[in-house]
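Bumping with the actual sequence this time:
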Amino acid sequence: MDLVVDANVLFAALIKDNKTAELLFKDMFHLFAPEYLLEEFIEHKEEIIDKSDRPREEFERFMNILKKRITFYPSNDFKYHTERALKITPDPDDVEYVALALSIKASIWSNDKALKNIKGMDVYSTGDLIKLIYDL
């Protein structure tokens, strides 16, 4: 399953070792994200480390693994879908995720309930994915 993963999902996985972190490494998921998400992590790095159960070194290792696990796209690669994404996205902060999902024909992994209301796009919460895997 192809999924565009949003920042809040990754923040949750980095802050606490939980089911979200486990899901990130399931082979059935092919994960994608806008490249700017990496900038968000750099910007919020100290905050994440402060809230995290992880020592700084483990945080760095986890980030390096995520960089290998997730395919990151520069905004130029999906800019032609931005106008449509602006029209259908309830929150302007989510436009790049929606535009990327439209561009690569993927679903979105987000715990943002407002995204669930986008017609014609599958948006899965972490809970949805857990049910999908463990209730098979």
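The tokens above came from a reply further down the thread. The mean pLDDT is 90.
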